[in-house]
Amino acid sequence: MAQLDIVAGVARDEDDDAIDRTPVRTYWQLARQRFLRHQLAVAGLVTLVALVVFSILVPAITGDAWKTAELSKVNAPPEIGFNEEGEFVLAPLGYSDIGQNVFARLAKATGTSLSIGFAAVVIIVVIGVTVGSFAGYFGGWIDNVLMRVVDIVLSLPSLFIILALVSFWGGGGIWVIIIAIGITSWTLAARLVRAEFLRLREMDFVHAARALGTGSRRIMSRHMLPPAMAPVIVAATLGIADSVVVEAALSFLGFGISQPEASLGNMLTEAQTYFFRNPWLVAWPGLVLILIVVSASFLGDGLRDALDPRQK
Amino acid sequence: MAPAPAAGAIGPLLHPDRSIPVAGYILRRLIQAIPILFGVAVISFALVYLSPGDPIDRFRTPTIRPEQLQGLIRQYGLDRPLPEQFWSWLTSYVQIWHEDAWGYSFLDGQPVLGKIAERLPATLLLGGTALIVTVVVAIPLGILAAVRQYSWADRIISTMATIGYAIPSFLLGLYLLYFGGVVLGWFPLFGLESFGSQGDPLDIAWHLVLPVTALAVQQIAGWSRYVRASMLEVLHQDFVRTAHAKGLPGRRVTYRHALRNALIPVITLVGLTIPTLLAGAAITEAIFSYPGVGQMGVQAVTNRDYPVVLAFVMIGGIGVVLGNLFADVAYAVADPRIKLD
User: Fold this and answer.
1) Do A151 and B167 touch (CB under 8 A)?
2) Mean pLDDT confidence for A96-115
3) pLDDT of residue A12
4) CB contact under 8 A, B47 and A294
5) Average pLDDT over residues A52-56
6) Given an 8 Å threshold on Cβ–Cβ distance, is A156 in contact with B298?
7) CB–CB contact B319 A157 (8 Å)
8) Chain B: residue whose CA lies nearest to A161
9) Domain A27-60+100-307 has CATH 3.30.565.10
10) Which residues of A touch B181 (CB under 8 A)?
11) DSSP structural state of residue B111
12) Which helix (H) or strand (E) holds B205?
């Protein structure tokens, strides 16, 4: 159906000929409006986008500088400009104890951490939505079994399980970290989707769809899933931050990503060794980590207000 | 009015009529916890036994004879089918009155139960102190922020809470170690006590300052927000307005009528915080080389000390189950409106 220019409140006031011509806005228009009103959330979104751009742009300019360890550059001061060979050098944060460009490495680490965060959240959402929608839609024994599984996963010391998974299967592989975070952290998403499905299941439009002979699969995916996604999107935003922190903690403890690969966690570990000589090495990755967490939490708050105004 | 029957220490909290349902409820919940703990056991067993390599990998040196290896495989029961191995492991696991019920550490051959018993007090000291600090600091802050909503105090507290919540505890631990231990040199860098201090409480407290702060800051941030929200909700309820309307002094309304109700949901937080502190302890203990269960768990993962890894997962699971149970029971006990089911 073509978009109609719907006009609300066409009923005329007897005394006044004024017609309220405020156009009826769609859910997404309203959501965008509510979101833009939330200044901190907008700031969070801008910061996250800026960090993504930073993590793509800087390695594109500096090439392999993030892993190249040059003996002549050990603890060298910051430099920006062209060197003797006419190459452009971008190292505003100087060089580390093994002669790596700290700025380039920070950008690469931000990229690694964010990709792990995003990828882990994809797994979290896929498992969470599948489990939650089946439990909420079918109810009965399916719900019972799935929710007991949720209880069990919730009872696991998840950080420790991730540590063990990454250590036993790992070898520092990035996918092991992503999967380990994903399979231990989907319970919140599952519970949220289940609650939404329980509520939606009894709604008229779902009964109508069923009465028209729509199959379960289509009702779940086409009719119930879209309205159930709002809380999941909020949880996913916060999940990115949590996953980034977990990855940083893993790499910090020496179980995650290791040299020459860069992650915020292993940059912290390396910097810890050089506390005295160069305390700033500890500050930068920590700062990026905090920026990611704060931005994601503001963004999550804003998205909650925008997408799911009933919740608060 | 019927004379109040003598109730025990929790008399004012627990109405005598409810003591029987509460006992039954606890029993029911403990029974419900069994399948969950069974699931935790299955997963932790799978985690270890489906891992690449096996427990006798460390014996596979070039000099070992094949028959010795066979003997080890039989000794560890690795030649039996997996379900059978699981069952014998599980049945041994519940017999915690036996010293060797949780097996022996691969690292030093000590019984796992003994190792845990040795290190658990240090972890409980760290986690317990962090919990107490959290309660003592966060509740007054949350109340202040709620009572003076939108004031400067509220804004400062809320901003600090947002920042505090955003700093991952391992990062905070690292910075505290740097500033408190290295730059200022005020606090010790590692351990539970100085060498040869023989358990001097002051010395231990000295060592606890940094790790407890690292653990507690995020909790304080979360708790103070929660207390503020809970207090605000109560302050806007009708009975508070009624109390004001009948002329009670403002302080009395706030601190007697409102506060008591606002703190009920906070009780739940205690139960839910315990597992978080246990998990956080693993990393904090690793950073501060604090001799607790958490540090032992992280070391066990590094060394593939499977029996200790299993034990840590099981302790974590039991901690969560008991924490949840405590939260629900305490909530029901404190708030007679809650129905036990």
Assistant:
1) no
2) 85
3) 46
4) no
5) 89
6) no
7) yes
8) B313
9) no
10) none
11) B
12) helix B201-235
pLDDT tens for each residue of A167-192: 888 765 788 899 999 999 999 899 99
Subunit contact A286:B171, Cβ cutoff 8 A: yes
Q: Do B312 and A286 touch (CB under 8 A)?
A: no
Q: Which residue has the higher pLDDT, B298 or A74?
A: B298
Contact by Cβ (8 Å): A194, A264: no
Among B162, B304, B316, beta carbon nearest to A157: B316
| Partner residues linked to A101 by β-bridges | A95
The pLDDT of residue A225:
87
Of residues B271, B273, B302, the one with CA closest to residue B286: B302
B298 contact A CB<8A: yes
A144 contact B CB<8A: no
Residue B3: the pLDDT is 43
Does A254 sit within 8 Å of B302, measured CB to CB?
yes
| Contacting residues for A24 by C-beta, under 8 A, at least 6 apart | A6, A7, A8
* A280 interface with B at CB cutoff 8 Å: no
Q: Helix, strand, or coil here: B249?
A: coil
CB burial class (10 A; 0-12, 13-18, 19+) of residue B204? middle
Comparing alpha-carbon positions, the chain B residue that sits nearest to A293 is B166
Q: How many CB pairs under 8 A join A and B?
A: 118
CB contact under 8 A, A268 and B165: no
- Within chain B, strands assigned E span none
DSSP letters spanning chain A: -PPP--BS--PPPSS------PBPPPHHHHHHHHHHH-HHHHHHHHHHHHHHHHHHHHHHHHGGGGT---GGGTTPPPEEEE-TTS-EEEETT-B-TTS-BHHHHHHHHHHHHHHHHHHHHHHHHHHHHHHHHHHHHH-HHHHHHHHHHHHHHHHS-HHHHHHHHHHHH-SS-HHHHHHHHHHHS-HHHHHHHHHHHHHHHTSHHHHHHHHTT--HHHIIIIIIHHHHHHHHHHHHHHHHHHHHHHHHHHHHTTSS--TTS--HHHHHHHHHHTTTT-THHHHHHHHHHHHHHHHHHHHHHHHHHHH-TT--
Q: Compute φ and ψ for A23, nearest 5 degrees.
A: -70, 145
Write down the residue that tokens 């250590």 correspond to.
Answer: A167
Query: From the list A155, A254, A279, which residue is nearest B321 (CB)?
Result: A155
Inter-chain touch A254–B175, beta carbons under 8 Å: no
pLDDT band at B55 (very low <50, low <70, confident <90, very high): low
What is the structure's pLDDT at B4? 43
ipTM of the prediction = 0.79
Residue B13 touches chain A, beta carbons under 8 Å: no
Q: What is the pLDDT of residue A92?
A: 73
- B326 touches A at CB < 8 Å: no
- The answer to whether A155 faces chain B, any CB pair under 8 Å, is yes
Residue B15 has pLDDT above 60, yes or no: no
Q: Do B52 and A169 touch (CB under 8 A)?
A: yes
- Give the domain ranges of chain A: 27-60+100-307
Q: Whole-prediction pTM value?
A: 0.82
- B295 contacts on A by Cβ (under 8 Å): none
Instruction: Please write the tens of the pLDDT for every residue from A234-270.
Output: 889 889 988 999 988 888 888 877 777 888 888 888 8
Token digits for B192? Answer: 């539970």
User: Is B320 an interface residue toward A (CB < 8 Å)?
Assistant: yes
Lowest mean pLDDT among A82-86, A140-144, B291-295: A82-86
Q: How much of chain A exceeds pLDDT 90, in percent?
A: 21
